[in-house]
Amino acid sequence: MEITTFIIIIIIASILQTSTGFGFSILATPFLLLLFEPVEAIQINLILSLIISVALMRKIRRDIDYGILRRFVGGSVVGLPIGITVFLLMEINSLKMGISLIIIALTLMLIFKFRINQNKKRDILAGGLSGSLTTSIGMPGPPLLLYFSGTETQKEKLRGTTLAFYLFIYLISLIIQVIFAGTNKTVWVSSLWAIPLVFVGLYLGQLLFKRINQNSFRVLTYIILLFTGIYLLIESFN
């Protein structure tokens, strides 16, 4: 049953990552926490997310806003050490609850049409928040999704810029996680088994991305976030 659950999580999360630019970590991390220890779940997520970013770079490089990308990277340098400190001090139920509340709050802000004007300082702040969430819970997506949605960024630019940023942030976060939290055989064996599943999801996700319009994209985002946040919140109490 756990193997079947693992396969479903990886394929669906890979499809959403490819088609939306953010879905893998937001969907995979909460459910991987139900199957693995926190260190294992987060590191498996980081490894697979890094593979996805590498695989998609050729297809999305024309959609990248390099100015925003540089500011995201600069801000993340401050956020990365903060995130790993939080991770090392937090116990599992608090970790689950924190992730769920972040996801739910993000979704509500999106639904009620939170809006923000983009500028260079806010780019840096978004990058910093994303960096801290990557090393702490393996989820860089929420701050970037909220920021880009708040500025009404088109889905191509959102996907391209976030995936390019993930290429950097996942690699650095994985290195930091391994150094400060350690790693084990389960992380690397599970990641190896999941790689073929990831590429199945990538293929299906590309097909979906070509067929999904902006409104459908937005509705899909809300459904994913609300379901994941509420489910994990319930699990944190159990």
UniProtKB/TrEMBL annotation:
Record's GO cellular component, any one? plasma membrane
Its predominant location is: membrane
Identify its membrane topology class.
Multi-pass membrane protein
InterPro entries from the UniProt entry: TM_pro_TauE-like, TSUP
Give the keywords, sorted. Cell membrane, Membrane, Transmembrane, Transmembrane helix, Transport
Q: Where in the cell is it found?
A: Cell membrane
Taxonomic superkingdom: Bacteria
Q: Which residues cross the membrane?
A: 7-36, 42-60, 72-89, 95-112, 163-181, 187-205, 217-234
Q: In the UniProt record, does the keyword Cell membrane occur?
A: yes
The record's Pfam families line, in alphabetical order, gives: TauE
Q: What PANTHER family would the database entry show? A: MEMBRANE TRANSPORTER PROTEIN (PTHR30269:SF37), TRANSMEMBRANE PROTEIN YFCA (PTHR30269)
- Tell me the protein family, please: Belongs to the 4-toluene sulfonate uptake permease (TSUP) (TC 2.A.102) family.
- Protein name, UniProt field: Probable membrane transporter protein
* Organism from which the protein derives: Gracilibacillus kekensis
Give the source lineage, highest ranks first: Bacteria, Bacillati, Bacillota, Bacilli, Bacillales
